[in-house]
């Protein structure tokens, strides 16, 4: 059984994934998409507001999050990263910096599982490597 928090994470990455295809998409459009996804995933209403906070923060800090991703890439060009991987990394960076109630190992494990679901095993390893370095060096959480 998929946890409620995993469903929230999935809906968030599915929503912010749109940013890389349509830079003109409005905040309101992303929130409507998010709410629709959360309803389809049968997420309890009390977690909808939390998911909206995730979206708002990620939208407002997208450039900063992307700069962090670039900083921790090893021999890899940011433009070569798949859009779904960027979305997963942005979500994880938000959680590492703002959700101190969630252990960093959980954030990394969830990110790896999302990568396996939405991409592949190589993607999962890549995301784990970037987030491991980022969590240790940038957030001092590992």
Described by its quaternary structure, the protein is: single chain
Q: CATH H-level name... which superfamily?
A: NusB-like
User: Spans with pLDDT under 50 lasting ≥5 residues?
Assistant: none
Secondary structure tally: strands: 0
The shape, in one word, is globular
Helical content class: 55-70%
- Annotated CATH architecture: Orthogonal Bundle
What is the straight-line distance between the termini? Answer: 28 Å
**Would you give the CATH topology?**
N-utilizing Substance Protein B Homolog, Chain A
**Main sheet?**
none
The portion of residues forming beta strands comes to under 5%
Tally of separate helices:
7
- Tally of individual domains: 1
Radius of gyration: 14 Å
Classify the secondary structure makeup into a structural class. Answer: mainly alpha
Query: What's the order of the H and E elements?
Result: HHHHHHH
**What number is the mean pLDDT?**
95
CATH C-level class is Mainly Alpha
Write a structural description.
The protein is mainly α. It has one domain (4-137): Orthogonal Bundle (N-utilizing Substance Protein B Homolog, Chain A), CATH 1.10.940.10. 69% of the residues lie in helices and 0% in strands. The protein has seven helices and no strands. The protein has helices spanning 4-16, 27-40, 48-60, 62-71, 83-98, 104-118, 121-137. It is globular and about 40 Å long. The model has no long low-confidence stretch (mean pLDDT 95).
Briefly say what this structure is:
The chain is mostly helical and 142 residues long. Helix content is 69%, strand content 0%. It has one domain: NusB-like (N-utilizing Substance Protein B Homolog, Chain A, Orthogonal Bundle).
